[in-house]
Fold:
Amino acid sequence: MTSPLRDEAGWIRLLSATWHRKDAEVGLGDDGCVIPPARYTLSTDVLVEGVDFRRDWAPPEALGYKAMAANLSDLAAMGAIPRFFLMTLGFPRGYPEAFVEGVLRGLHALSDRRGVELCGGDLTRAPGGLFVSLTVIGEQRRRPLLRSGGRPGDVLYVSGSLGGPAEALRRFEAGARLEAFDPLAGPADPERALLDRFYRPQDQIPLGLFLADTGAASCCMDVSDGLARDLSRICEASACGAELQAGALPVDPLLSRLGEEERFQKALEGGEEQVLLFAVPPEREQALGGFGVELYRVGRLTEGEERVLVMRDGRREPIGDAGYDHFAP
Amino acid sequence: MTSPLRDEAGWIRLLSATWHRKDAEVGLGDDGCVIPPARYTLSTDVLVEGVDFRRDWAPPEALGYKAMAANLSDLAAMGAIPRFFLMTLGFPRGYPEAFVEGVLRGLHALSDRRGVELCGGDLTRAPGGLFVSLTVIGEQRRRPLLRSGGRPGDVLYVSGSLGGPAEALRRFEAGARLEAFDPLAGPADPERALLDRFYRPQDQIPLGLFLADTGAASCCMDVSDGLARDLSRICEASACGAELQAGALPVDPLLSRLGEEERFQKALEGGEEQVLLFAVPPEREQALGGFGVELYRVGRLTEGEERVLVMRDGRREPIGDAGYDHFAP
Structure:
């Protein structure tokens, strides 16, 4: 692939031409951006080549889409309205520019749909490969949804299926490839849909805003390091234990060919789900009906610290906090 | 160096124990941070190992200090009060933890002095080496200082000496090493001071706030890619030309051993100065006296697009926009 060797000014021109929104008081092109007065929620998340993805797994549009979606998922978990983002992009000398341009197209497809404006960033060389670091800024009109605040007896929900991204990751590592990615529509074929799911987390923003507006949830977070590990964080922040019903876990139907044990393991320990995990006091559960999209009742918060998985036959198995840790030995 | 192999939770504990401020409504430990309602200015800047620094050039405290200082410099150039920051930190498996801890100490020394709170971030593996990406958030109480707004006739100022960091970089690349770095005080020895200057940009926050408060400056930016290139940005944004007086340029006295041509070249094209470049209409110049710290009158904005350097003997040499470009071919 030959590269026209775009210089820094050339990349900035491309970025300015791609992102048109002008909600920021001062946007791209100054030493900083100025955003209108409001209460803001910020979150940041980076994808690194060779760690979070490999370049040959999927088209670059998929990667850009995922980078934006993963960041928006954190705003969703707080109940914030996405407004702005900053992007730091690094890649080695001689890196294929067409790949970077594809990443930007995928990013833009989703940021445009959600009305999120690029207002700043940084460009650099990075000898180790591409990295895309986003900081997203959401407006927090309601009380933020936090990990703390859950009480024993609150009912635990997840907002989407579990285990798909972990199984997709395993397949990518075994040689599977996603040949095409359309930011507007996922593939119908189940095998490709599973790989596609890795790059296309469901949009949780509407649910986050619904939970913040109704005040239904006592605590909330997005599942990004696996249900078991993220549940342990909710439990720690809320000073509770938890009981999950194995039969109630929405294991991704695309995993149906796997054995039961492996399916539960993927559902509990798989990462990058980007679904919301939240708790609702029983007396507020009926408010959830207004959301109109299926939510999965998977268990409840309990007294104490213990976290257990109740199997279909009644056996109770302790849940550890295994899951994804970038820094695990 | 043996590493105790801190896991992700271990790093987060270290970060939480280091940064104590609690101005954020929701700080570390949730999916996002929530900052109090205000008008905010944001900026982001990343340092990458092998691109912006090498690990053996200086103690890690120097690098952390520089990372924070470079980001604060952008807020200074906008006239914002630093309040919060997010930090994304990536490094390879097996990277010496003591080095990362030193970077955090240097970062904390400066953020603590300026009252800036760590409210979020991300941790990741990065196969190519250490990178430190900060997003800083400042409160914008006054009208922001922009690159646009300069008018022909406005007097150009820089707020500190030029060329030192470029010469320090040359020496590091030729084998020089900075053996020690004290975040509280620079070295007295001139040779070490020159190397130290690379990591210790002057604090421009008081000047940025002064300029925003008094409304004295018509335009402003921080010099980070060299005076020539950054002047071209001011000129483009303000639709002006410029005339610099060679004899007025505050070339770093530590460069006195170099020949005149090389000194001017370093002063014009050297990067990472992190001093402010700003223009002041003549009728507002006397307001600058209130700042009480020396500022350097280096030229003026002119009609047209031409940018020239007027030599001591009256010769007029065109100024290009040579300077630092990460993506130069």
In short: Chain A touches chain B through 68 residues (CB under 8 Å). The domain at 8-139 of chain A is CATH 3.30.1330.10 (60s Ribosomal Protein L30; Chain: A;). The first strand of chain A starts at residue 33 and ends at 48.
